[in-house]
Amino acid sequence: MSHLEKVMEFNREFVDGEEYLSYNTTKYPDKKIVILTCMDTRLVEMLPQAMNVAHGDAAIVKNAGAVVSHPFGSIMRSILVAIHSLGAEEVYVVGHHDCGMASLNAEELLEKANAEKSTVDTLENAGIELKTWLTGFDSVEDSVRNSVSMIKNHPLLEERIPVHGLVIDPGTGKLELVVNGE
Known about the structure:
With 182 residues, the protein is of the alpha/beta class. The protein folds into 2 domains: 3-98 and 139-179, Beta-carbonic Anhydrase, Chain A; 103-136, no CATH class. 36% of the residues lie in helices and 16% in strands. The chain has helices at 3-16, 43-50, 74-84, 106-112, 117-125, 130-133, 140-152; strands at 33-38, 58-63, 90-96, 163-168, 175-179. Strand 1, helix 2 and strand 2 form a beta-alpha-beta unit.
């Protein structure tokens, strides 16, 4: 049985057993916060526990490294939607130690992706700077500060919205304050 078939079989049992009932909540975050964090598997359950965030408390946005790489990309759009449509009143950017984005090497990633030179040339000729786009960061703290700054200085974000920056240890859950947005 393929993984997809296992997922679909489990889902049928989940729905038939009405296990979804314990997850019912509204789309509005109860604690009125939006969290941008990394997609790292170690954070899936640990981060909410470490921040005392229960189901329904927060809008959570995830991407590689908890990085806002462009002020008008999908990450920033998601944050703005959480604030202006879902009622979030605070933003938390939470990076983590031992992140896969730390020291990410564009050349190595392109090699692993089996990207042919003609494809790379086509993308770069279209204005996509792959080496910049696929480069990670050296300091998680600096990366968090940069994302906080990009969010805080966005023209569609009201000045009254605090944007905080934290770093979590994925082994212990310990949070370190990098930027106090108050």
